[in-house]
Amino acid sequence: MPRFKEHFVQGAVVAGGRRLISELKSNSSVGLGELIFKVVKSAATGGVGACGPDFLEPAENAHHRKFFHSYAAAGALGVSREKVKSADIDPQLKEILDDLGIGYLVHLGADAITPKGLPMTGIKL
Ligand SMILES: [Zn+2]
Questions:
Q1: What does the radius of gyration of the chain's CA atoms come to, in whole angstroms?
Q2: Neighbours of 53 (CB within 10 A)
Q3: Which of the residues 10, 16, 19, 79 has the least number of beta carbons within 10 Å of its own beta carbon?
Q4: Distance between Cα 48 and ligand 1 center (Å)
């Protein structure tokens, strides 16, 4: 995975930063230790999520971007994230899924702005 570290860091920074802002904006009275724990947990989870596309479609050549590296996958993930938001599931699981999704989308965003870009669906008919 040529850009593994780069994608991990991008996902970690965005998911961790997002969690930090979200916690600071909320009126919860978490202590500094818990705040740091939440931000680090989100950063680590976001970093893992950002490795998702290349885990599913390893970057072994310039044409590795198929469905899991496509705008269609980003859209499907966006819809899934909305479903998870309103689902009646454990709030901690929601946070984990949210951070994984953010990381995945960060990877796709980073790949989208490369000269190769992303395919619309990555599926050849
Ligand atoms: Zn990629």
A1: 15
A2: 28
A3: 79
A4: 13
Summarize pLDDT for 84-96 with one digit per residue, the tens. 989 999 999 999 9
Q: Is 85 part of any domain?
A: yes
Within-domain flag for 11? yes
107 CA distance to ligand 1 middle (Å): 6
Range of the domain at 11: 4-112
Measured in angstroms, how far is the CA atom of residue 53 from the centroid of ligand 1?
Answer: 6
Residues in the chain: 125
Which segments in the chain show pLDDT lower than 50? Answer: 1
Closest C-alpha among 42, 52, 114 to residue 77? 52
Decide: residue 61, CB within 10 A, 0-12 exposed, 13-18 middle, 19+ buried: exposed
Q: 32 CA to middle of ligand 1, Å?
A: 35
**What is the identity of the amino acid at 30?**
V
Record the pTM.
0.91
Cα-to-centroid distance, 120 and ligand 1 (Å): 14
How many helices, marked H, and strands, marked E, lie in the chain? 4, 0
Total domains in the chain come to 1
